[in-house]
């Protein structure tokens, strides 16, 4: 039996070697072959190459498919969320178990795909081939079966022949996801999807629909494509049946200028060749419906405002006045003789319940003022049921971390807004004081480098603060991890330091009240999608009047 297997493998290698000599360029990896940083695969007609590429302004390398031309776009990236150090000597290999993977010095391999075990018995063997379409496929050597293809796992680029939509048989979704920022290929905030029910393209930001294409018109373009997008450029096809629901397209006209749709980190959908804009979802502000934008907030720009809208304004104004009065009351209480040493937890809880009397709508993250603009000091009172629904009953998989205040959970409201829920730990001795302090400070502080508080929830003995969710977590998440820390080059570190300094300068000098944070540390610096820093956790902060230069504290606070 062993002799037969050896003969079979030998015959396979001889056949493959013969086929290899018939090609002018190497477009295929056979079992045992490798690709290093100095070599590449080139499709049969030399239209695309697969190689390791170093990302600009970083020390990271990515496995990428690109067109054979000057200044090519990375049409597909095999390790976008697992950057490889440029010094780790990466290798792409197809091993004898038919697993295509990236190996690197001192790190676990990055598995791209594998053929099923049943394919080990195929007589023709399994190879990885780069096609002229830009599609990398893992298939039987004779092409009779395809086990995996890069077109099923797009990054931010939509090539002719790719699909956007859903495979209803197995639930697999084809969609584009933008870069995290201009030079970071990691998954970013914007996604381009095909809605198989509405037959529309949609751009989402952080899971919320921002823009829709409208239906495909008789002239071959979508309703809300920009006027410069011509039907002579693309030939769209829509497939909708019990197994599939997707959109695909082919190029029309000059085949030497094959289009590449790229979804950029700013929300622009643009053709890479010629930089032709297709849509501009970044112009959608949530109030308009122009050009396919989706309204998420009540618009006040129309002259025909309905009576119902006027009632919303009146109700919001009254609620805002009640909240501000309550905040002033709490601030006065803060300065009164009930200092922290003598405060009673039950008394503070009763104080906080006064907020519940403000008839603010729940789940309303951005309140409106009389002029229709977002109110800087608006807070929402969230119902307990809405928080339970948003966090899946505080599921363990939604837990982001644990602080002195208590656990923090990720959540998603019914309207699609992502939030972070800080839940007061019942065993936290200072929790109620921190809760009160943070609510008071939100009325005084607004700065781009301070985290935004949406509102709060009180339910029996439960107290929760509801914040904006920042997808890059905290600074310590990067600083103390050897792999993620590589993302922080000196330019980005300096930018983060500058942002923290700007936030502190505002607190110490330019805010209406002088504020000393007293617990500034890496875990309290949160990072948004563009790695901009935001100072959080004001539970330990101390308020000074403008004329105060020093003050005494009754106890030591902060982190050991």
Task: Give a verbal description of the structure.
With 560 residues, the chain is α+β, with helices and mostly antiparallel strands. It folds into three domains: 23-147, Orthogonal Prism (Agglutinin, subunit A), CATH 2.90.10.10; 154-296, Agglutinin, subunit A, CATH 2.90.10; 307-544, Transferase(Phosphotransferase), domain 1, CATH 1.10.510. It is built from seven helices and 35 strands. The strands form nine sheets. Strands 26-30-31-29-28-27 form a six-stranded mixed β-sheet, sandwiched between helices. Strands 3, 4, 5, 6 and 7 form a five-stranded antiparallel β-sheet that branches. Strands 1-11-12-13 form a four-stranded antiparallel β-sheet, with no helix packed on it. Strand 5 and strand 6 form a beta hairpin. Helix 2 (307-335) crosses helix 5 (431-441).
Which shape, going by the Cα principal axes? globular
What is the CA-atom radius of gyration, in angstroms? Answer: 28 Å
Largest sheet: 6 strands, mixed
Task: Give the CATH superfamily of the largest domain.
Answer: Transferase(Phosphotransferase) domain 1
Total tally of structural domains: 3
Order of neighbouring strands in the sheet with most strands: 26-30-31-29-28-27
Short structural description:
The chain is about 20% helix and about 30% strand.
